[in-house]
Specification:
Layout lengths: L12 E2 L5 H19 L7 H13 L12 E2 L10 E2 L12 E4 L2 E4 L3 E4 L2 E6 L2 E4 L8 E2 L1
Parallel strand pairs: 1-9
Antiparallel strand pairs: 2-3, 4-7, 5-6, 7-8
Helix pairs in contact: 1-2
The structure holds manganese (II) ion.
Manganese (II) ion (MN) binds next to loops.
């Protein structure tokens, strides 16, 4: 919280050194997050932002493993009412703030989510969260 406004950030942690598969999974989600970010511009529809991440994931071995919407608006409430998901007709406008939080989840193996908060500006998207986005090895 900052002056009553919420943030919502997710990082993924692996205990020990990441395996090749864990690294590949994290890299896929990172690329999906970046693909969605590139679409987070004024005039974009929520469903097209979601599709940028979902289509990327669905072209990999993790097809169908992104099992939630891409993100949500955020402000005085952490889930502020607007959604970025496959059925969202919401149109992005300058000064709106959304999360960009793709993930993949494989039963019996594990999951990855990377979540950051993004300000929509006339010039395009701007990350408001600055924590390192890499896979954390503990
Ligand atoms: Mn969230």
């Amino acid at each position: 919280m900052y002056h009553m406004y919420c943030s919502d950030v997710t990082r993924t942690v692996v205990v020990g050194a990441a395996s090749e598969e864990q690294s590949r999974m994290h890299d896929t989600v990172a690329r999906a997050q970046a693909a969605a970010l590139a679409k987070m511009k004024p005039g974009s529809k929520g469903k097209s932002v979601d599709a940028a991440a979902r289509d990327l994931i669905d072209r990999t071995k993790y097809k169908g493993r992104f099992i939630h919407g891409l993100g949500h608006s955020i402000g005085l409430a952490v889930h502020d009412g607007g959604a970025l998901n496959p059925s969202s007709d919401l149109v992005l406008r300058p000064n709106m703030v959304f999360t960009d939080e793709p993930g993949v989840y494989v039963p019996g193996f594990g999951g990855v989510r990377i979540e950051d908060d993004v300000l929509i500006t006339k010039k395009g998207p701007r990350y408001m969260s600055t924590a390192p986005r890499g896979l954390l090895e503990l």
